[in-house]
């Protein structure tokens, strides 16, 4: 099945293998075929703006006909997230305490994991709320470890929130017994947690729909990217997120000559064989090494021909 039939695509891989260029080329092909496409970078070290030679930033912008792009800004999303929490707790905290609670939240904004949480919330929002707006969503993700963490968060966060909900429910039951009136207490925090649990659950359902969501890894025919990809594919399999396509990027073209490149090609052939032997269940797409970086739409258009639809 062509990767272009998937509604949602996640492009991952080791740093420096060409994830952003591959994601941009796939998104370009989809848009060129008339499919309204949103290209999203979840990598804090954004590269999409460099590929398209223009500023993109944290708000969705139109790149070309049918193609929009967004570079998620973790700092901006963290602030939005903290502001939304402050809004949610209004009326649930005593006025004498609200200043201290807000101070604690401002401290939490700078704590480890805050960016990741905000980035994850934005990812879920795009999946749930932009799905109907676009024919395709293409995610250019951060290097492998970050990507695995991001993709497995719907399950991990779901389990964590379920634990919080049970504790909250028990507290409310005890409070009801204390009042001894049999009436359930109103608990806006429980409602907020339940809403988040439902959103994460729905996002995970969508990510597990093999007909709708596809996971692609990019690697180079070199030892370390092969090892890292093998480990990533195995880890994602455990979460039922199956990588069905690999893009083997920067393969030496046949016309490249010279003694140095001949030696390099000899090693490359060995690694290409290793990739074929290791990833028998994946569709393999070979993309050649270019003599230059992609910095214009014209160059991307020519390059994207390697990702043409079936």
Q: Tell me the overall shape.
A: elongated
Summing up helix and strand content along with how strands pair, one would put the structural category as alpha/beta
Q: From the alpha carbons, calculate the radius of gyration and give it in angstroms.
A: 23 Å
Note the main sheet: 8 strands, mixed
Helix content: 40-55%
Mean pLDDT: 85
Question: Gap between N and C termini, in Å?
Answer: 9 Å
What is the count of β-strands?
8
What is the string of helix and strand elements?
EHEHEEHHHEHHEHEHEH
Which spans have pLDDT < 50 for at least 5 consecutive residues?
A: none
Key terms for this structure?
single chain; 310 residues; alpha/beta; eight-stranded mixed beta sheet; 10 helices; 8 strands; 54% helix; 15% strand; elongated
Could you characterize the architecture of this molecule?
The chain is an alpha/beta fold and 310 residues long. 54% of the residues lie in helices and 15% in strands. It has 10 helices and 8 strands. It has an 8-stranded mixed sheet. The longest helix is centred in the middle third of the chain and has 36 residues.
What's this model, at a glance?
The chain has helices at residues 19-32, 48-52, 74-89, 95-109, 114-129, 144-179, 188-208, 223-238, 259-278, 297-303, and strands at residues 8-13, 37-41, 61-64, 67-71, 136-140, 213-219, 243-251, 283-288. It has 310 residues and is an alpha/beta fold.
């Amino acid at each position: 099945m062509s990767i272009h039939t998937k509604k949602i695509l996640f492009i991952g891989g080791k740093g420096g293998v060409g994830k952003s260029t591959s994601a941009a080329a796939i998104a370009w092909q989809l848009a060129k075929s008339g499919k309204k496409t949103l290209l999203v970078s979840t990598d804090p070290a954004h590269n999409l703006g460099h590929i398209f030679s223009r500023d993109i930033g944290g708000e969705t912008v139109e790149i070309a006909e049918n193609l929009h792009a967004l570079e998620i800004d973790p700092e901006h999303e963290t602030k939005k997230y903290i502001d939304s929490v402050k809004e949610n707790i209004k009326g649930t905290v005593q006025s004498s305490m609200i200043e201290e609670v807000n101070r604690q939240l401002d401290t939490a904004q700078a704590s480890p994991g805050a960016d990741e949480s905000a980035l994850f919330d934005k990812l879920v929002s795009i999946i749930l709320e932009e799905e109907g707006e676009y024919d395709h969503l293409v995610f250019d993700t951060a290097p492998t470890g970050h990507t695995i963490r991001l993709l497995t968060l719907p399950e991990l966060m779901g389990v964590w929130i379920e634990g919080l909900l049970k504790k909250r429910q028990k507290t409310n039951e005890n409070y009801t017994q204390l009042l001894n009136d049999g009436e359930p207490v109103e608990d806006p925090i429980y409602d907020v947690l339940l809403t988040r649990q439902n959103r994460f659950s729905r996002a995970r359902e969508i990510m597990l729909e093999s007909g709708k969501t596809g996971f692609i890894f990019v690697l180079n025919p070199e030892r370390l990217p092969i090892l890292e990809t093998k480990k990533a594919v195995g880890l994602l399999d455990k979460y039922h997120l199956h990588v069905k396509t690999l893009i083997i990027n920067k393969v030496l073209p046949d016309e490249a000559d010279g003694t140095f490149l001949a030696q390099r090609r000899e090693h490359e052939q060995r690694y290409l064989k290793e990739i074929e032997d290791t990833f028998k269940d994946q569709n393999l797409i070979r993309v050649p090494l270019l003599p230059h970086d992609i910095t214009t739409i014209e160059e991307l258009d020519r390059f994207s021909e390697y990702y043409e639809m079936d």
